[in-house]
Task: structure prediction
Amino acid sequence: MSEERSIGVIGVGWVGLVTATCFAELGHRVIAMDIDAGKVDALRRGEVPIHEPGIEELLERNAERLRFTTEMAEVLEDARLLFCCVDTPPTYSGDADLSRVQAVLAQLGGDGDHALVMKSTVPAGTGEAIRRDRPNLSYVSCPEFLKEGSAVADFMNPDRVVIGADRGDEWAADEVEEIYRIVGAELVRTDVASAEMIKLASNAFLATKISFVNEIANVCEEVGADVSEVARGMGLDRRIGSSFLRAGIGYGGSCFPKDVSALKQLAGNTGYHFQLLTAVIEVNELQKRRVMKKLEKHLGSLVGKKVALLGLAFKPDTDDMREATSLVLASRLQGEGASVRGYDPVAERPARELLPSVEFCDSAEQALESAHAAILVTEWSEFARLDWASLASRMANPLLIDGRNFLDPEKVRAAGFAYEGIGRPNHADEDESGAKSRQR
Result:
């Protein structure tokens, strides 16, 4: 274990809370600050305000090493390294909103006793601007590469740790490097602008892979190929890899949509038109809406139809509803005259605030009762264990749109459902004997 240090964490949202609890787990004393007094009080009581596997256990196990406060003065007094973990949501223009970062800087002043370590995702050039405005404040870019649902494991066993610092701030970068050395990952030491770009470029590339395989899925539907088989064959090429080659109804969450738009806007602000990312964004938006065509093919008009959304969060093992596909689907379904039911094992509370016209159910079984169709939106593991034969008998029309290609098509069809996946062969048109009109 590395030498114990006192570390400050500013902002205890999802990234900040993961960062604070994991640093404590590594043996450091952590003081975490947030302006939300209710959130701070809850954390002091040991209550976790987010759903992220492993966080509650870390918080309990490291209670003596963790302190939560609403006062920046306490953080400045106790810690020299200050990890900035505040949100940088998109503005209407697509740029990153840096108002929370600016609010942090306003409280720090310009002394040379502290180093600001930027975990928040910011555009390339942000560090340069901060150093220009506050030349005495040391600055390090150390972007996060955490995935919701597996953030603790990602923190403790990262693919790499990127540390960006410019001339004069080497001491701060050395301190950050020493803290992370214990996790055993490759350390990438670079300049600040490159570190900032690594984060945006990484997320943009992963989003591009998702949109690419979704385009391939759409072509597969036209020619009778199975995108799951195509992606498997592609992924075995080491130059391509299998990660993020799963077709579905588009990406969402707090990172990909925001970071792709921010990088596109950053390029545009310099006069460069990032054509590829324009297409990535367009494909992702259209992918969600293709579900409507699948429903209408089976049901005709959606007026008066009951449609169940299985899963509401943007991905499993989180309650995050930011840019969730369910938001688009619910809006489009209601716009076409359908009534919408929704079920999610953990995201109902935040979903209720965003989907006031949706009927929320306590179980998948309740959501599917008398429904004309179901859309699997989030691949929660419990959906794989459902008794689909029993559910088919309880629906007004047993139709399942598997938006994540999560279930076995043959088993679902054998249970009595009409099944549609994404980029999978379509066997909906069958003759009266049940023979498939088109063979694989």
